[in-house]
Amino acid sequence: MKIPVNPTLSARRGALTLAASISVLLSGHSALAATFIWDPLQNTLGSDGEGPWDNTTANWAVDGVDVVFPTSAQTSLTVALVTGVNTLTVASVEGLAVGQVLSSDRFPVGTTITGITDNVVTLDAVSTNTLAIGSVIHFSFNNDALIGSFAETAGTITVAGNQSVDSLDLNDAGNGTYTLTGGGITIASRNGSTGALRVNSDVAISSPLSWKNLVFQSEVRTLTLSGGSIPGAVNGSFNGSVSGSSGSAAQTATLSVTDGLYTTAGSGNTINIGDQSLESGGFKFSGGTLATGGSFQVANDRTAYAEVTGTAILNSSGQITVGRNNNSNIGKLVINGGTVNSTATSAPDVQVQIGRANGVGVLDVRSGVFNVIGNGVAGNSGGIMVINSNGTNAGASGTVNLTGGTTTVKELRFNGSNRSSGAVGVENSTNGTATLNMTGGSLYVGGTVQLDGSGAVTTGGIVNRGTGTSAYAINLSGGTVGADANWSSSLNMTLGTTNGNVTFKSGNAADLPFDITLSGSLSGTGGITKTGAGILTLSGTNSQEGDIVVSAGTLVLGTSNSNNQSAKVTIAETGATLQLDFSGTDTVADLVIGSNPPLADGVYGAVGSPSPIIGLSQITGIGTLTVGAAPPSGGYSSWATANGIPGEPASGDFDSDGLTNLVEYALGTSPTASSQPPGTFSAGVVTFVKGADALANNDVTFEIQESSDLGVSDPWSTVVTEGPTDDTPDISYTLPIGQQKVFTRLKITQVP
């Protein structure tokens, strides 16, 4: 039953105890906050607030004196416009239903609604003749509670024991913040109610609290929670949506959690409040623990903002989703302290999705810990973070910004599905963008991922599943990318200089060694620092310009880089190896071993390399490093010296493998060891890859020629020519279709 509260004693205040089946209106005549005590378990009059709950008996204690809460304090919920014998014509019947209870001192408490037609409410057989036109009345929907005077200073409400209501309205005060303390309040969705907590005021609740839906109904309001959930409550807490009754109310609302243990029940919760662009309002989680058995979603129905800071811990066994359902739902989740653990033991979807189903999602990890560590269950894949999940239009996007803290995933997936490969209804993104920006912090990747609980496994890594016009970008300008298991990636990465070199650590946070293999291209102005005792292999066509530092373990370079001639290479004196798995040389500006001064200009390689190559114990493999200025134009002779055949003519064949020294130079093969036949032939296309030195020196012309009989009666004719200034990395020719036989050859001409 909704009961108004208004003490007649304005100068004396106590403490209000909230119980079930009440509606409480706090107001008074002074600027001081109202505080009251009431205990519904007492049933006799006295000076301690004893007695039955009503608004006609002096049963509220203020400093030991019983007071009455008169009708004049009632707040307008519904206004009677016209009265009849058993009917009321009201301003609105919204929310009213047959069987609800009418509360007023004008007729016996407990008068019920027997019918509603338009705005006419028919009551049971009780006369309403004593009601004046315009009187304020109260309808109680089962077991609702109402707090707030709209006018006076907010007060303190002490809850006696654990009380249960079907809804709780926290109305506005003239000023100040309402404080609820003491016993627990369970807001249960019973008797057809929504189990809603509705906020119109600034309120701090240290009582244990459980609810189903939380709605902010006024602008710029803050609800602060520190008491945790009621153990075993039907709804837990955060079960349902956290939203606003209007766009402006939602955008300016703040739900602040500073302490307590909170659990969810059912499908979890959605955060639909706050301003992601200003990082204001929203869900501010700074202390306590939230254990969600269902989903934790930010921006499911509108733009929204959430942050985890301080000592807060979010444990999610369901999915975490940021930005979902359409391009206007822009969500942002900031981790700036605290810990997020995504364990994937209940939800049927991939654990973490940043931008889902054409939503726009942003995850910022600035400090703290974000762990995506589940192993997967039936229909669910553990350990996976998807950036831009199920995107089908150009506005779909997911962005992960790593500037600090530690993020751990088994698989980082761009443009994937909310399910893994092999699952029914897999829909990888066909449009939209997925972006990883890293300038600080640590990202540890790798581990066994169970796909959809089917038993199939993958070793994780960084992958792109997108098709169509979907796109991805990986921008690394600082921070550390490590390994919790051996992992690989074929994706291209751009290296920047915002925070210096990116560090690839072939090992985990405990320094156990694991290997990383990157077969995509590395480009940009940045460089690489290699740490960890494992192996980092770069087998793609790389063109990054920055320095290379090998502090520990082994860095394997599968190709030379013609774009890093201004770079410095530093190798630790012990415990570090640079393995050059390419033919020819890579030119750099400086080579430093440990803390020693830079080595003199020259050609450096593995111990045992032929003169004039200088052998170093820190270098292995067949390739060399040329330290100093790039070879001059017409640099065949410099190349010959660097590769151990100084003074040998271009027409010679030092290693007797059938390729002249000039051809070895032009194709970047070794002149001192027998080389595999140059060129490839696939699907009717013959291709020859050009050597890095010949490309850099611009002193070779490449021609592909063809003949039907090796030039016996059909002379060789040139079909493709690429001159010295053509910087394309290879030369190719598609053989004509329909001829009985045709031969091709590569002709190399040195430009004087």
Quick overview of this protein structure:
This protein has 752 residues and is mainly β.
Characterise this structure:
With 752 residues, this protein is mainly beta. The protein has four domains: 98-216; 254-418 and 432-476; 494-630, no CATH class; 636-750, Immunoglobulin-like (Sandwich), CATH 2.60.40. 3% of the residues lie in helices and 41% in strands. The chain has a 23-stranded parallel β-sheet that branches. It has a twelve-stranded parallel β-sheet with strand order 10-13-16-19-21-24-27-29-31-33-35-39. The longest helix is centred in the C-terminal third of the chain and has 7 residues, at 636-642. It starts with 34 loop residues before the first strand and ends with a strand. Mean pLDDT is 81; it is low at 1-77 and 630-634.
Give a topology summary.
Blueprint: E1 35-36, E2 60-62, E3 65-67, E4 78-83, E5 87-90, E6 101-103, E7 111-117, E8 120-123, E9 136-140, E10 144-147, E11 156-159, E12 163-165, E13 167-170, E14 178-182, E15 185-187, E16 196-199, E17 203-205, E18 209-210, E19 213-216, E20 222-225, E21 240-244, H1 247-251, E22 254-257, E23 261-263, E24 268-271, E25 282-285, E26 289-292, E27 295-298, E28 304-316, E29 320-324, E30 330-342, E31 352-356, E32 360-372, E33 384-389, E34 397-409, E35 411-414, E36 433-445, E37 449-450, E38 457-458, E39 461-464, E40 471-476, E41 480-483, E42 487-489, E43 493-495, E44 502-505, E45 516-518, E46 522-523, E47 528-531, E48 535-538, E49 548-550, E50 553-557, E51 568-571, E52 576-580, E53 585-588, E54 590-593, E55 602-606, E56 614-616, E57 619-621, E58 624-627, H2 636-642, H3 661-667, E59 680-682, E60 685-689, H4 692-697, E61 700-707, E62 717-722, E63 730-734, E64 743-750
